[in-house]
Amino acid sequence: MGRALRSLGLGLAASLIGAAASAGVLSQKPALSVSAANGDLTGYSAAQTLDMSRVMGGDASFTAKVNGNPDSATYGLDFRVTERTSYTRDETQSLSFGASWNETEAALRSSMGRRMGFGLVPSANFLRLSMDMNALQPMAPGGEAVGRADISSALTLGGRPVGSFAIGAGNRGEERVAVSFTRPLQLPAEFILSTQERNDGPPDQRVVMRLLKVDW
Q1: Euclidean distance between CA atoms 16 and 64, whole angstroms
Q2: How many CB atoms are closer than 10 A to CB 132?
Q3: Which pLDDT score is estimated for 34?
């Protein structure tokens, strides 16, 4: 099973990179790294990003990656499409998909985000909404699948972040609500209030204050 997964992952990544190279969409050099201890290989990682903008239009990229050690490896594929404004190049909306797999589990990820400007200067006043969904399936028979969804928003006024709100839940519980305020009453700090309900433990409630670097 492990050898089949490794062969499938390497074959798929090599085929995609080879096809992209022949199409002339290689935009970056491969990112490669290895680690060793006592003369033995202990870990490695490799990633190749392809610029798909000429193929699909807009700002699109595809990344194939692998990391692990001599005994196991995790393969991943990521695809991202981004739309930007023509005058500031700020991101207005984005869509991404990702997948990874190894001998023990397979995971799928998706994310959608949109920025909406308002007022006389929409590039400085905007509300950003995003939604993320994740699913994890163990390879072992009878393993419980895990799913989760998160929705978040962030408000910016006059080019300055004001606050954010996020909610999330999954099929294993762990419902989460978080609210943050940036510089309330012009204080040089960010306050985060969050609460999380857990099926396997007591609620987790937190109040966090983080100092911000501002012009005094």
Answers
A1: 8
A2: 17
A3: 93
Q: Could you tell me how far CA 142 lies from the centroid of its own chain?
A: 28
Paired tokens of 215: 């012009």
Task: Output the six-digit token pair for 56.
Answer: 């699909």
Kindly tell me the burial class for residue 48, based on how many C-beta atoms sit within 10 Å of its own C-beta (0-12, 13-18, 19 or more).
buried
Place of tokens 């909404």: 129
- The beta strand positions in the chain, using DSSP E, are 31-37, 40-51, 59-69, 72-84, 91-101, 105-117, 126-138, 146-157, 160-170, 173-182, 189-197, 204-211
Q: Supply the DSSP symbol for 180.
A: E
What single-letter amino acid sits at 61? S
Averaged pLDDT, 41-53: 91
Which pLDDT score is estimated for 122? 83
Average pLDDT of the residues of the chain: 84
Residues 174, 159: Cα–Cα separation, whole Å:
33
Average pLDDT over every residue of 62-85: 92
